[in-house]
Amino acid sequence: MDTLLSIGIGIGLAAACGFRVFVPLLVVSIAAHTNHLTLAPSFQWMGSDGALIAFACATAVEVAGYYIPWVDHLLDTLATPAAIVAGTIVSASVFTSMDPYLRWTLAVIAGGTAAGLVQGGTVVTRAASTATTGGLGNPLVATGELILSGLFSVLLLALPFIGIALVALALLFIARKVWKRYHPPAAVPAGA
Which of 22, 46, 137, 147 can pair with 58 through a Cys bridge, CB separation 3.0 to 4.6 Å? Predict the structure, then answer.
């Protein structure tokens, strides 16, 4: 059961990286630093003072950048591969009782995919916001993404079953939106 729970938490944290790359890393670092989370042996560094400071600074810069017009689009371009890497790392860090080969395989496939899927959804949402509001709605989108990233990260560590359920619902919602965006319904022929 512990292994399944750590897999769910890891995939959920990876998905949260799709909203904001560094928020879940910061939350994991704080939890490890305060001994509320045990990380895989090769990831103990994430709970160090240096990692905590680095993740806090990176989070502050990332969050601020999403409130600067046009910088948010640049960050979206950079965040897509960064989210996949961060999702892979954060998920591997909480897969504590696994063989390293299985840990990394699962982290790359499940963690990287979850982060990429959520990041893809945020890109589509930001593009729609820019197209419909001329970019004026983007700070609202950025705030929503920040709240979801922080909420999911904290819930996954504090109340894992609720956090996993919410992340699963969010992933289904985002997958459906992305699918509709790129696979519109077929047109009904005239006269049918």
Answer: 22
Range of the domain at 150: 2-177
Residue burial 90-114, b: 16+ Cβ < 10 Å; e: rest: bbbbbbbebeeeebbebbbebbbbb
pLDDT of residue 90: 97
Residue 1 has pLDDT above 60, yes or no: no
Q: Which residue has the higher pLDDT, 183 or 125?
A: 125
Question: Does residue 187 lie in a domain region?
Answer: no
How much helix, strand and coil, in percent to the nearest 5, is found in the chain?
80, 0, 20
Does some domain include residue 22?
yes
**Neighbour count for residue 147 (Cβ, 10 Å):** 13
Place of tokens 């591969």: 81
Instruction: Answer for the pair 3, 98: CB distance below 8 angstroms, yes or no.
Output: yes
pTM above 0.70, yes or no: yes
Q: Which residue type is seen at 142?
A: A
Over the stretch 137-191, which tens digit does the pLDDT of each residue have?
Answer: 999 999 999 999 999 999 999 988 888 888 888 888 877 877 877 777 776 676 6
154 domain-assigned? yes
Is residue 182 domain-resident? no
Distance between CA atoms of residues 18 and 182, nearest Å: 19
